[in-house]
Amino acid sequence: MFWRSIYRYFYGVNKGVVIFEVPLTGLMEDEVIKIVSSRAVDYYFEPVNAVIEPGQGLIPELYGYQLDIEATVQKVMEALPGERVEPVIREWRPLVTRDHYPEKPIYRGNPLKKQVGLQINVAWGEEYLNAMMEVLKRNNAGATFFLVGKWMEKNERLSKDIWLNGFELESHGYRDDVVYTELSPEEMVEDILKMKKIISAITGKEVKYFAPHKGEFDDITLEIVSRQGLRTIMWSLDTVDWQKPGVETMVNKIKEKVQAGDIILMHPTPDTCSFLEKVLPFLKEKELQPVGVAELLNPNILIR
């Protein structure tokens, strides 16, 4: 017994080392392997391929992950006294991703993510945006504001405030008096590049997503947008707030139809603030996290 204790002291896990809240002091490598292996099922998620919905758009992929048992055991055996060891988790990418279909629009995210995307298209209604942002922040909700370029030029300070408040900025086109299907390819490219420059000047980041004005597009539009490195974003639930259907009508529509992965479209209107006040707690009750579109479409769900 004495010699076994000495052996464990010199060759076993250092004193106070912990993983998965399990103390490992003095354990030998084969014992650590058993403990780590027993938790592998908790750190396993198979990747999900991107798919095309019949008559719809693209449902984006999700990355998988799995526990690297060998690397995790090695970390434990090399851990310093008192160290809390984090498991080594490896990302696992699917065979089919959104990059295989660059021109396909996206109407909703992957339903396996317990999230809902909030899409706010802005070409007017600036007087309601601060109140909307306050409601969103109070409820720890993300959102993506798809802004029109001409509106941004008139509301530069407010555009920056949206970004500084932690919300995503993406393109709703430079002009809102025409739809892309009425423009030539050259005019579309000019519009896209102009918006990229305007938004990037505020965020310092590349624009990734484009929401077409009035939701109108055709195959040429999709191809031109994708060639400029953007993805066309639509929606799966529309509040139709601009038609002033009433707060309760909008809220009831979401309560009846919302599912994980949905993208909810709205605009800055006086009723939209009240709508958010009521619908955000409901989403929380349904365990659906309201996020920006970029977060909703993020395929990397690797747990940390």
Q: What would you note in describing this structure?
A:
- The chain is an alpha/beta fold.
- The protein folds into two domains: 2-100, no CATH class; 115-296, Glycoside hydrolase/deacetylase (TIM Barrel, Alpha-Beta Barrel).
- The protein has helices at 2-11, 29-38, 69-78, 129-138, 149-154, 156-164, 185-203, 219-227, 247-257, 270-285, 293-296, and strands spanning 18-19, 22-23, 44-45, 51-52, 58-59, 64-67, 89-92, 115-122, 144-147, 168-171, 209-210, 231-232, 237-238, 263-266, 289-291.
- The protein is built from eleven helices and 15 strands.
- α8 links the parallel β11 and β12.
Tally of strands:
15
Alpha-carbon distance between the two ends? 39 Å
Order of secondary-structure elements: HEEHEEEEHEEHEHHEHEHEEHEHEH
Which CATH class of the largest domain is shown? Alpha Beta
Number of domains: 2
Question: Secondary-structure map with pairings?
Answer:
Blueprint: H1 2-11, E1 18-19, E2 22-23, H2 29-38, E3 44-45, E4 51-52, E5 58-59, E6 64-67, H3 69-78, E7 89-92, E8 115-122, H4 129-138, E9 144-147, H5 149-154, H6 156-164, E10 168-171, H7 185-203, E11 209-210, H8 219-227, E12 231-232, E13 237-238, H9 247-257, E14 263-266, H10 270-285, E15 289-291, H11 293-296
Parallel strand pairs: 8-9, 8-14, 8-15, 9-10, 11-12, 13-14
Antiparallel strand pairs: 1-2, 3-6, 4-5, 6-7
Helix pairs in contact: 2-3, 4-10, 7-8, 9-10
